């Protein structure tokens, strides 16, 4: 039977989940139910009924590095290899739709979910996501990029309104999704919890209809984030296909009533049902049992892939030259009197970079995270890894091997390193413990220690879904440890574990910093291989590291405590701000060191005019890889406000010792365009553009002038630039022309967003979209007690366990409306209204109304269930 022949109720039933992770199928139309599962860096296939926060047990699966780490590779092909493995595991674990990748823009370093997102730049985010999506979908499993869109904070995440101008939204926050949709054609996409300029993402016709479907050509299924739908009817009209997890039959009742009343066209219902049915049929997984586990051989193979991804993604941030005479004497003794050359060819006793660690180096391993690894974040993406490694054990394994290759190919019987001891160094939960520091200092100060290897970073409480970071600092106990180790005079090599930037007060005092991010279950062995020269680090930062948090353009208003999260900084996010305003940073966007040395030469337009070419040379005797980056700057006399430069292309290049290669970076629809708000379309300015290539946003040794003519690229209108002195400033971004890009007046805000912006503050009357946390200010004793009890419980659990209480955080951030979407039909909108009355202090009236509404809801659900059973 054809889908259109189903009843209105049957079609409506297909547009909401049947359980926490399953869709509703329809046997009469031959449409199977399908299974959805997190996650972006590992399959979290839960056992039993499951839950959306990752609290319940899940089947073992490979934990790959998180997106924030993988982005450091700047290698879409590596992301695609990881995606192929993810899709393979999803298939084997009977998952039809894998909920990832996450590619929201990293607007601010404190977002608790930044480890799940790729970059502050949409080109990097889009290209990396496209690679992962292609890999996942090569297995017949649907990828589901998320969270669409303008989702930048965890605080009030289900009750926040992102207030943003159209140009900033298009150029910064949507372009990454556009690249992923156009290049990889995902079968599904997930909307975000937040509103965009007052309209929830899952019912935002401008976002889902005008842009996603009409402009980009997306023809797939749009699924809500779990509990992120508001009005089922408005969602169907706008282009939202599937509500998850399960609202029971409440949404079915609302849709049927709307069609009968003529307020919803049945054609819209049919369109959404076809989108759900298409995913169900395209991802049918025949012959796979839900109780199956990963094959041992597959698990072992994917562990190796996870290691390769980690190896290609870690970023060498610092590698100072140090006196190596002590190491030479050790190496000479172990080798029978012959001091070995370093990996760079410099003799021992001569100043050379500390990394890779020379043969025979005696290392003291310091840090609780060296022994108890942290390799992923907290929340719905948390994976039950098939195995775990830690740096201490991996160092000891390397040291105990009888014959190992040293550096990049020279063989010998001398162990590359010797582990002389281990000390925890700090309390995992951040408590001050001078005794632990004293123990570590005593170990490092011994005569048989050449180098201190300190593993430090953010703990489990710091980076999590549902919770933004309160500071950019790592725990003070760890800062104190590193300072004390540096004071011993021994070289300190820091392995930094974190999913996003941190402040580094001791940066100038240590010899080397290897940023490994959240590197997945094979991250420890990958780290040791990089430290000892088995692997040459080739990662580059996909986000700027400011010197201090106060330097961030959005520091003054992030996260928004009130309903409106106002994007006052406009397009000046990350390096676009720092490079335009001249604010010094710790490490620029795109930065990364190597054990090799690279140079660029002969920068020129491609012969056919479709891009640029440059010659890259490895000027060292060490094979390695680097990232060539293309930045553009618009015509110098222009009325279009732009950042100083913007990344528009990149290429990861692997070169042998002394090898040169001609590298081409193509132009595309994103290279020269800007969004013209007045014309409501993309435009390209004719004139002389400045193109630059280099290895990061600050290191751009080669530039050239490139003339864009009236020949419209990719079908976009080309316009002549208006002289800056004669043109009226862009009314949407006028304040930024003064160079002060972090302060916008209230009058400019009204011009920018077309309405008054509500100042943050606690509401006195609560609605269905105000989070439960706001009830702490309620006049009603019951509501106030509920909110404050939840706040105390979350704080107590976090203090006791060292990890956030995700379930309580979700409830605190949840608006009452979500109860009608996440209780499998036990709560409907009438009951939500009664609950809100309780929140507003009308406790008795609200309780009585709630009880009556409860029985009406049960009766209505039974009627619709009976009707569906009889179809």
Automatic annotation (TrEMBL):
InterPro entries: Cellulose_deg_GH3 (IPR050288), Fn3-like (IPR026891), GH (IPR017853), Glyco_hydro_3_AS (IPR019800), Glyco_hydro_3_C (IPR002772), Glyco_hydro_3_C_sf (IPR036881), Glyco_hydro_3_N (IPR001764), Glyco_hydro_3_N_sf (IPR036962). Gene3D superfamilies: Glycoside hydrolase family 3 C-terminal domain (3.40.50.1700), Glycoside hydrolase, family 3, N-terminal domain (3.20.20.300), Immunoglobulins (2.60.40.10). Keywords: Carbohydrate metabolism, Glycosidase, Hydrolase. GO terms for molecular function: hydrolase activity. Residues 626-697 form the Fibronectin type III-like domain. SMART domains: Fn3_like. Belongs to the glycosyl hydrolase 3 family. This is Glycoside hydrolase family 3 C-terminal domain-containing protein. It comes from Bifidobacterium santillanense.
